[in-house]
Amino acid sequence: MEALPPSATLIRMASRKEPFLIGEYYHVCNRGAEKCNITKDPFDSNRFVESLIVFNDTEPIGSIYEQSFIKSKPKEQKNRLVDIVAYCLNPNHFHLILKQLAENGISIFVGRLSGGYAYYINNKYKRTGSLFQGKFKARHLIDNDDFLHASAYVNLNNNVHQLGGLASKLVRSSWEEYEDNKNVSICQKDIILDQFETRKEYELFALNSLPLMLEYKENSKPESTAGYILGDI
After folding, report:
1. Which of 37, 54, 109, 151 stands the most exposed, by the fewest C-beta atoms within 10 Å?
2. For residue 140, what are the β-bridge partners?
3. What is the per-residue DSSP string for 127-152?
4. Percent of the chain residues topping a pLDDT of 70
5. How many structural domains does the chain have?
6. 73: domain range?
7. Considering the chain, what is the average pLDDT of its residues?
8. Is residue 96, in this structure, part of any structural domain at all?
9. What CATH number should be reported for the domain holding residue 172?
């Protein structure tokens, strides 16, 4: 699979008035309402990852309560709304890199993901109201350098936020998929990994990018020339 074409212009934030385009890549994120935690225990975090699989289908599905991927094999995804390139769930927010495959695929997928997961959390913890803070944010990735750094930023987002202790146990990231060719894989990684000789080479690229990401976060420059930090998450 070929890399994204170079571009002289980096799109910082995709206007929600502009439609998501089929075949294009976007960095998507959202956080808990009033910065609340969206996962409180490892089972919640596993549920979120299950939701990435369950809700990525062009066909309507039943309740996530009716399906389990912890004790059974994930279903084959034949009619995906999106390709998931990378993801990271942190205690109070998530990041995704998505390629739209179907008309309105990103909006439908993220809407189902947010709504279905919020329904699960609200039922489990007997809470009411919105789990997430308004509409998700999205940024169009059209420059290959921006795209590669965005993948590193998402894969290592828990490291960017320097999460440790109990918080680290709630993190779920596609970084493990990029490090190791796991039998069960959510992400479509070829567009990233095919640009490197080995997985180790990509790993080094991402880890070497981490100090720069930490610097930008420390200086609060979400729209810097690197372009991969999206919003004040």
Report:
1. 37
2. 26
3. --S-SB-SSPEEEEE-SHHHHHHHHH
4. 77
5. 1
6. 25-218
7. 82
8. yes
9. 3.30.70.1290
